Structure formats: structure tokens, C-alpha cells
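protien #1 (seq + structre)
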Amino acid sequence: MPEKNVDDEDVKAAIERPDTGDGPGTDNLDDLPESDFVGFAEDYAEAGPQAAATIPYDRPVADFIDELSATGHVTHTSYKKTSVTLHHNAGRLSHQGVLDVWRVRPASAHFDVDAAGAVAQYVKVNEYAWAVGNTFGNQSSISIEMANATLAPNWTVGETTWKNAARLAGWHFAEVIGERPSRSNLFYHHHWSSTVCAGPHMDQIYDEVLTAVQVAYDHFKDAHSTLRPDTERVPVVRQR
């Protein structure tokens, strides 16, 4: 008997869920501070306007950037990033399901990691995602969503999902932020606004998550790879 497709029902529930604590973090986006982003200018100039927007990660990154941009739920201003914030989907969502939620709800994040540990990107890494419901948090933090394995009240996240999210976070600390991950720069969503995200399960394993991020940071820092925006785009396979 085929498994039940929970994506559609979880998308609907996620859209209707109150008090998510996400969004732009301000009612007047015209008053956002000017960009303080100065990194990677030479790389962008050399790559030219046709360069792929996804990060040059060492694993595939599905590209949903243009589709998310079409929703209007992102601010295309770049800022210096100093932290990573982890979220949960509040649902057992696919990458497409996450986009479907954000087409309706005024929210976004830079990345999503699904139940299989696969990565998708929705917002360019230095841009202002509508992720944490706090202006400074949206300016300064890279937001990574994670698919849930179970729903309320525990909102568990599978080990494959959170470990791949931790690895992705470690890459960003090494390649974008340039600081070792610690309690002062690896956050859950509830650090920024009134929400239970990333859920009680993730709260219980924070120390384990931080250790995994630090291990990934050490790996990528030692690899001496360079952030370049001209990585090849990964085709998105639609499964509906």
C-alpha cells in the first residue's frame, strides 16, 4: 500500500498556523538600514549577471530562488551575516511544499533541508529573508528551515535532517560568516521572536547540534574552499 502523501495537508496546516513568529520584522521595509555587505564583490563582478545564485556547496542545492522572489516575500538588500538560525517547517514538507506555504504566507528563509537531508535554496545568502520576525535578525542571520518528522506537540526533526542542516550551517560559518559557531551565533528561531520554533525536540538536542555544526566548520575551514557565486544550478525535480 503506498504511503500517504502528507505534504498537501501539512502545507494547508502550515499556512493557517497562527503565531509563527516569522515575516519581515517591520511594517515599513523602506526604513531598513542601508546594506553593510561588502564581501565577495570581485567574485560577483567576474561571474557576471548570468551567474547561478545558489551557493557553491559540495552537495547539490536545488534552486528555488527565482520562484521565491516572484512571491515578493523577500527583500533584495544584502547584509553582512554574523549568525545562523535554525527553524522547523511546522510540517512534514517537501521543498516544493515549503515554497507553496511561502506563496501564501508572507515569510521566507534562505534554505530548507528536507526529510532525506537534501538542501534547497530560496533566498540569496546575504539577502534579507522574511524569516525571524525581527529586523536585526533578518539582516544578520542566515535562516535554515528543517522538515519535521512528527507534528505537535514535540515537532521532532529527524536525525538525517538536522545533521544535514548542521553541516550546511558549518559551511556558512566557514565560508560566509568567518567565525567559529558557538552559543552566541547559532540560534533557534525563538531567539529572535515569540515562537516555539524550532520546537521542543530541537531544544533538547541543542548541544548535540552545536557540536555537529562545529565539526562541519572545522572540516570546511581546513578545506580552504572559496565562496563563488558561479556554481552550476541544480535542476529541481517536481514531485506533486
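ok now protien #2
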Amino acid sequence: MNTPSEITRRIAIDARLAVLHAEIAQLGSERNRLAPIHKVPEEILCHVFSLLPRLDATIFVCSRWSRLALSSPVLWRDVELANWDTKRVLAAERYSQNRLQHLTIRSLNKPLNDADESALRHLAPRLLSLSITGQQRPLDQLGLALGRYMDLPHLANLAVICREETEDTPVLYLRPMPALTTLRLKGVRVSYSHWTAFADLTVLEMDHPLAVNILFAALAQSPRLEVLNVGTWPSSGPALQLEDLHLPLLREFAFRQRPSDFGVFWKHIIIPATTKVRFTSAHYISRNDLDPIIALAKEHLARPGVPACDTLSLLSLSSYNYSITLSSGFGTPPIFALDIPTTDLFEVLGGVINTLCLPTVSQVYVDQRDYRAAHSEDWREVFRPEQLVQLETLYLGFPLYSSEYGNVYSSLDASLVVCCPDLQHIVIEVAPSAGTMSELYGDDTSLLEWIQTLVEEMTPSVLSTITITIRGATEAQKRAVLDSRHVTAVRDFVWEERAA
């Protein structure tokens, strides 16, 4: 039996050993970092090679790298090429010992010849994923080849993307692919008569979808679908009868459609309450166009089980294109989103926001750095005070300044602040430095002038309780604000680095 002194000594030795082991590990790591590249262990080099998309370029560095790369079959199972090259594809297949499984072609810019098609047909039975981006003509030929004689029994991921905007959209002919789980098509149509059932499909993204009745019938055979992102569907017509489509595992649902057809499809798609939904209007819309969309959105958000929405964001995507999202927190994925192209900014957005501003919303984020169409309007037309009584935090994107629009944005923000009687916190994101384009962003006093306008609109009781957090300001802007006697009534200023 150990004496107390022996036990104490053993504990001291264990502690010392732990320190020594940590020091040895640190020294070993430092030694490895300082070692010449030719002394790096082969297993580490092999791991580095596996992270390189252009693996074949490494074989020309030195004889050791060439020997290691060419003798490691696992490195050649995932091949990415700038364009189709039959010799390189077959070489990769040979180096992988006939186990090439993942093939990516970044730019298919010429039709495949007989040798190319033969090589692809040879690889097809073993491929797990195939991703091809290219032009219209070669993709048209590829789409026909896939449907006629490509045997793809193990293919799990297929992506075909056309990077040309052309009226002659490439057509894809799909054969049965029993293992397919992910299908991504952009700028590509699928032949109506060649759509097949994909029982294990979990992700479907396509911007030229099938006719809605065919699509519904096809998706009904994909009960495991988790992500559905589809573009404009052909109009169903008044006589078309649709069966309800149940997608019990759907996590994300995004679709682009004419506002008039929104309800036709939405009411027939049965999705979980937790599904994240994004609707993009395919046309410029007016306030009246949105009424049915808003009604269905409210109905969905009122379902039991829908996550609580405490943050409403209004973002400018581009000129006359806006996004309204409801989420569970600033910076979190949207629970419900509307992407709206409109020239009637305040009438349309005001109707949407005032309707969707749920009682649970306590944060509003407004990014108006590109609100050029709104310079003469007033935020009171968008936000009604009775809808914002619970608002505690307001995020504002610091706007662009120019000689044309001047400081009119600050009056917009001030009117918005007035609509928030219980406001406690304002977070201001300052626009990035524009370098020589300083005339667009204003001088070092622009931020001060903007904040002064906000402060002047606030009551003394609000000023005594409010905190203003400013992210990304320059030192000169910070100094101008802190030295100003006009903003001393603000309870607190917090200065942060720009958000990542």
C-alpha cells in the first residue's frame, strides 16, 4: 500500500509527464513546420495531394511527387478538369486502378466525338458523381447520350449547368438512376417523356422544370426529398386538376413563379411546418398581386410547429429587387422569404411588412445601401407604429451618399426610429471603404450627420435608454461622433469591427 508521500510524488510525476508530453508535441509540430519539403512524410504529402483539384499538375514538380501521385490510386478517384480531355480522363482511370468515381468538367465547350463518348460510356457504370458545366451545343449532345446509352447504376449526384443564355435550352434525357440522391440542373430542360422515378432523391434543383402535373407526379415518387428548388413552372391552366403532393421530409422549399399562379401550386403542396420557404416572383408586381401570397404566407406561419420568427429583414438585392425575410435571429437562415421585383417600393413593401410583422418580431434589419428608388419617400409608409410596438433592436445598413441623393436617407431612418416606441438598441453597419470613390460614401462627418438626424427625432426618454452599436467605422468617423456635443444624450455608444 502506497504511503501518502508516495501518492503525492506519483501525482507530481504525472503532472510533470503531462507537461513534458505537451512540450514534446509542440516541439514536434514546430519541427515538422520547419522541415524541408522533401522530408515531409509521404502520408502527409498524399493528404495534401487529395485536397488539390488539379492533381495532375503535381506530377511535374519532381520525381518523388510524380512517383507518389501515380502510385496512389485513391488520389485519382476524384478528378476535376477545366475541359473534357479523353486522354487525361482515361489516364486518371488507369491511375485509380479503374476506380474513378467523381468526375467534374468545368467547361465543356465542344461537342464530344466518338472517342469521347466511348470514354464516358466506359466510366459511367462506376461513377458516383458527375458534374458538367458547358455550352449549349455540347450539353445538348451530352443530354442525348445520357438518355440513350449511359448506364449509371451507382450515380448519386448529377449536376448539369449551361453557362450560355440562349433560346435553345439544352435538353437532358434521363435514364433510370436507382442510386440518384442529388439532381442539379441550371439552364437545362428535362425531356417530359424521359423523366423517371427517383425513389432516393433528396435534393432537386432545376430552373426549367417540367409541367406542373408531370412534376407533381414525379415528386410523388420521391418521398425522401429534403431540398426542392424549382424555377418558373408552366401555367397549370384552369382545367388542370392536381393531386395533393406530400413531402414529409422537406427542409427547404424555394420556387420562382408568377404571382397569379402562386396559390394554385402552394395549396396542393403539403410540407412540414419546419420547412424553410422562399418565394421569388417571376415578374414585377404591384400591391394587388401580393394579396393572395401574403394571405397564404400568414396561413403557413400560423401553423403549429413553425419556428418563432423574431427578426424581420428588408434587403436590397439590386435596383428594384428586394428581399423580405423572417428568421429566428439576425444572420440565421430565413424561415420564410419573399424576393420581390417592384417599382412600387413603399406601397408593395409596406403591405408585405405590415402584414408579416408578427407579434413575435423584436428585431428589424434594414439594408438600404442601394435604395435609390426610395429617396423621396418616407418609412412611415412602410412601417406602421402599431406593428412595431414590440421592436427592441433596429439594424441599419449605412447608406451610400452622393451629390444626387445627399442626406435624404437619414430622414428616412429617423422616421423609422419614430415608429419604434420601445426601441432599445440601434446597430449601424458602415459601408466598406470605397478608396478613391469617397464621393459616394461621404467624408468623415457623414456618419456623424446621419446619427445626428436620428438623435434629433428621438425623445429624451428614448435617448436615455438607447444603445447605438456602430460596426466598421473609421477612426476619423468614430472621433467625429464622440467629439460631438449633439449626441451626448445617447446613453451608450459601442464600437465594433465590421461583421465577418
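The radius of gyration is 30 Å.
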